Amino acid sequence: MNRLLVPILVLLLTIPIGLRAQLDPVSLALRAYQSKEYTKAQELIDIAVADEKFNTTARTWLFRGYIYKDMYKLDRTGPNGQEQRANAISSFQKTMELDTEKEFDNDCIPSLKFLGSTLFNDAATALDQSEFDEAQSYYNDYKELTLVTNPNIDFSARDVEFKLYKASKLSLIYELAEADTDLASPAQELKSVLRIDATGAAIIKLYEEVIALDSNNVSANYNLGIHYYNQGVNMIDNLDYELPFEELFAVQEKVMELFTMALPYMLKAYELDPTRKATLQGLSGIYFGLNDIEQSEYYQLELDKLNSNQ
Amino acid sequence: MILKSQFETSDLNYFKIADSVIYFGVQRSHTFARNYNVKKLLTIIILLAGFAVVAEAQSMNTKVNPRAKMKSLFIYKFAQSIEYPEAYKQGEFVIAVVNDDDLANSLRSAAQAKSINSQKVVIKTYTTIAEVERCHVIYIGGKTQAEVEPFSKKARKYNALIITEGVGMIGRLSAINFIISGNLIKFEMNLRIFREQDLTVSNTLEKLATNVVK
Q: Which residue among A242, B32, B97, B121 is least packed, with the fewest CB closer than 10 Å?
């Protein structure tokens, strides 16, 4: 950056005043940007924002925002992607702060919305990669930024999506770990790293939060029902044949408790969508586990009817 | 505006859950993927997320039949609590199952690792009365007494512990009968049949039974 500072200053001092405006760092940055010399544009615009002559002008920050935004778009996953996005966001925000006439709102708001959407997508990507803390951080940033462009936004629907997605990802890890009880297994290690306890309390909490926000959410009701059901089944599956008789009865009671907890959520999912096959299978399984064969067969029959109609 | 052409509209990808997960993220470094195995697992998880396009994000455990597993646990405990005649204390310990494949499979998977009274456990399944032969335990599935009785009658020729499930079975068809009480699998006993089969049962088992026919 410094290597450019001296030639620019020399140029500014030696050229006629009329030309100076065109050769100030902002103008030079703009020219570099237009010719897609992004690195040069970035260096020049950073010189400009370090200079009191330029850094109180909304336009300077707007250009900086665009330069960093485009650099980010070219290299989203590169080592500087995050920093470039952060610089773009702060530049657009600074533009809006300085732009008392709201001349640049039509530029800043869509740009910030776009950058917000990339934060949202990164949250999803992080969840896909089981990086849950990072995902939460991206999601928090997305919400914070969205509030800038839309202060009255209601995040309930987004929160439902995010929590549900997060819960389903955690569930997947939980189930893999339940299927592989070897403590040295990758699934167990991941479960431990993510601090998922034996009952999956964090998963249950997320589903409950989703249901609190949207009681008619079929997926949350179904998934929570399945979580409790699977927990009961896994408990039985892991029982040792050497277990004393008395303990066998105690475990059976605990398992029935879990199946009983699963039932209202699965019934709710059924109420919301009676033709959903997975729910019918879930209800048949839960009732079977509860030793209510009549009800189990009823839902199995419903499922068979659906299958035969297709 | 000079930079207008550089603006692009939002390409927000919505989260989709459960049976229609559509989001596929870009690979990034994993901060906690400390070793190859964990990375491999993460790959599996990402692939599984892909399968969620057509399936529930959280899938039901259908590999285990909880009733069958619970009954198989009970049956092993019953077998361990019974004193057989001397002739039955040698050779293989045979558990036969009629009309319940899931139970047979559950018993079979346990038999690979377990022995009863130091005897190797073998699981057999009978579909006809003619197949019924000398065994230590026979579980006879069936909803009606008429369905169960012929198997029970044949099994009475041997010193077999006869187990059934259902209302009214304990009177004359089996020594132990599974019943459902308050959603729980429990059992009742017929001591007369134990005696007739020359089987000695432990007091513990008797105490745990819901109903004991003397």
A: A242
Quote the domain boundaries for residue B82.
Answer: 66-213
Chain A interface includes B70 (CB < 8 A): yes
A113 contacts in chain B (CB < 8 Å) = 10
Of the partner residues B7, B40, B66, the one whose CB lies closest to the CB of residue A111:
B7
Residues B166 and B75 in one domain: yes
Considering only CB atoms, A70 lies closest to which of B6, B13, B46, namely: B6
CATH number for B104: 3.40.50.2300
Question: Which letter does DSSP use for residue B87 in this model?
Answer: G
Residue B60 lies in a domain: no
Chains A, B: CB pairs < 8 Å? 207
Q: What is chain B's pLDDT, residue by residue, as a tens digit (214 residues)?
A: 232 222 233 333 434 332 222 222 222 222 223 344 544 554 444 434 432 322 245 788 888 899 999 999 999 999 999 999 999 999 999 999 999 999 999 999 988 888 898 999 999 999 999 999 999 999 999 989 999 999 999 999 999 999 999 988 998 899 999 999 999 999 999 999 999 999 999 888 999 999 999 8
Amino acid making up residue B142: G
A223 contact partners, CB below 8 Å, separation of at least 6: A164, A167, A168, A171, A207, B18, B56, B57, B58
ipTM value: 0.75
Q: Say if B27 falls within a structural domain.
A: yes
B195 neighbors B189 (Cβ within 8 angstroms): no
